[in-house]
Amino acid sequence: MAAQGFWSLGAENAGDNSTQSPSTPRAWCQAAAQKFTGGIGSKICALLNVGEAEKPADPVAKKPEAEAGTCSCSKPCNCSKTNIGFSELYSTDLLPATNGDLKTMTFLQEVVDILLAYIVESFDRSTKVIDFHYPNELLQSNNWELSDEPETLDDILISCRATLKYAIKTAHPRYFNQLSTGLDMVGLAADWLTSTANTNMFTYEVAPVFVLLEYVTLKKMREIIGWQEGRGDGIFSPGGAISNMYAMLLARFKMFPEVKEKGMSSVPRLAAFTSEHSHFSIKKGAAALGIGTDSVICIKVDERGKMIPSDLERRIVEAKQKGLVPFFVSATAGTTVYGAFDPLIAIADICKKYEIWMHVDGAWGGSLLMSRKHRWKLNGVERANSVTWNPHKMMSVPLQCSALLVREEGLMQSCNQMHACYLFQQDKHYDLSYDTGDKALQCGRHVDIFKLWLMWKAKGTIGFEAQIDKCLELSEYLYNKIKDREGYEMVFNGKPQHTNVCFWYLPPGVRYLEDKEEKQKRLHKVAPVIKARMMEYGTTMVSYQPQGDKVNFFRMVISNPAATFEDIDFLIEEIERLSQDL
After folding, report:
1. How is the subunit organization of this protein annotated in UniProt (predicted)?
2. Using N-to-C axis directions, what is the helix angle for 40-48 and 101-122, rounded to 10°?
């Protein structure tokens, strides 16, 4: 039987003669109060203020809070909260303080209650995506300043509630603003565990399980790319921009290993190549590595945003004639705006011909490798020297989770190792290959692997595949819905390759203008106004931007597994509603 959704938990408790729908929050709360241990279900209901009365008209109205020193359970209980108040307690009363066990458990349970209530609210379509305030208003309405004296734990809990009150609900089914959306419950649990373990990824001795999980997962990802037996190397880094910079660093070292000791003065002027629609991190990486942004040559794209291979080869030849040394080509699998996939096979042929490192920035589109239906869009990726892949985007792994995969084993170690003897002693009693920290640029490295690994265990590859396929199905639904709808114009013709759907909406006041220059001028202002109104009302969020000579247009992306066809319909109706007077 198909799942009935989040609120279906209460269905089994709704009798045949019940007038209450099992899908209502109240029914869910009644079931939750019975199913969850420790009174957590009742606490969620109390925090959400779901009871005999209907939900307040204002979905973000402040919920009544339990008095200090009392619990928020709806029935008699044995909660320790009845004996512990936070108004006179400080962080020094928590562990490792003597006799701090009970106070710590009670305080953390209170924090968990706040988080659970926020999670439930985030998936409720009747709540706002954002409670928007301008920066000066937000600064003035709350005390965000730091003080010399400590605040009570009661104040700390108030700060937690205030922070979430004004946070963007990125898990909300109608949040479409960024490439990273949604909130996976198993991933969240893994993130909590990771923070509790609070360790560093540099050596096996301090992170034995996490290091092994990174080894296993990176190998699996390399197998999916198509590298024989998953051979090669890789590392999880703080985002796709850093993964791309790692790739450029390795490409330079591979061609000129002396640069590690002697610096850029020891090598000729280099040239890197990427498409006009590639991510800005390619130029930023060149700047950080001392190569310079002028040495990044942008290749023309076709009308769909794909790199034109003939222009790539032309610019490589041209650079060589000028005395530059081409060392790095970054192809994009899923551009940020258009969602375009560069022709990897043709690019690989060119890179092989001129002996240039081929990198594939698959931060956005790399996850399509998990889908048998869509992985063809990355045909040729197995010929790359390196690949960036961000599971925190299409796979909905909680931020941050970005991997750089490298085909040549040992290259990262040679490029980055510094032999710090206080960390990487050579006479340890275990296999030193599991001390991965010396191949990273960082010393302190966050544990990003456990979220992905645990979600993979929970979903299986087929679960990720279904999730990705669903998002692409939703984007195709949106495209089909608006391509011939009055008032909408597509930025480029044809079905999108990724979940990016780029379009203009022309309100009635702009739609029938005959002066083309005036029409473009006014159309440029439409998307920013609609977006601002979306945020003021808090109903939804979707991004916009110009591109080249094109005026501002909406870039709709879908990566949230919670989104449905109804949410797509809502977005269309909301855009039209908010622009009636434009």
Report:
1. Homodimer.
2. 50
Contacts of 115 (CB under 8 A, 6+ apart): 164
Tell me, yes or no, whether 212 lies in a domain: no
Cis peptide before 25 (omega within 30 of 0): no
Q: What tokens appear for 377 in the block?
A: 């869009």
Give domain status of residue 383, yes or no: no
Contact 233, 410 (CB under 8 A): yes
Q: How far is CA 582 from CA 483, 518, 527, 544, in A?
A: 21, 14, 11, 17
Name the 3-class secondary structure at 302. Answer: coil
Region 533-537: mean pLDDT is: 98
Number of domains in the chain: 1
- Decide if 81 is inside a domain: yes
CB of 44 closer than 8 Å to CB of 113: yes
Q: What is the DSSP string of 267-288?
A: SPPEEEEEETTS-THHHHHHHH
pTM of the model: 0.87
Any domain includes 503: no
Which residue range(s) make up the domain with 136?
A: 5-151
263-300, pLDDT tens digit by residue?
A: 999 999 999 999 999 999 999 999 999 999 999 999 99
Q: What is the pLDDT of residue 41?
A: 54
